[in-house]
Amino acid sequence: MTIPSKTQATHAERMAEAKRRFVRLMQLMLAATLLVLVLAFSWLHATGTPLPFHFIVAISLAVIGSLMLAAALMGLVFFSHASGADDAPESIDDIERP
Asked: Within 13 Å, how many C-alpha atoms sit on residue 94's CB side?
């Protein structure tokens, strides 16, 4: 799953591959986050810790929000690099003008 270089693929192909990898990263991170939450709440329930409904909702939203935000920010760094947005233009003619 390597990103093709500029000489091997067009910009559209690189963008499509980078988007696919970003979406896959977010899906895997959401699955991992939900698994950790289920395991943590199961362990707390098994040990007899009282789990009020509002506690479960608040902690779940906080954990999901913070981990998904971290994954999104890191994923955008990878996306920017993989899509070629960080590459320097080859020449002055490569710079897109409005």
From this structure: 9
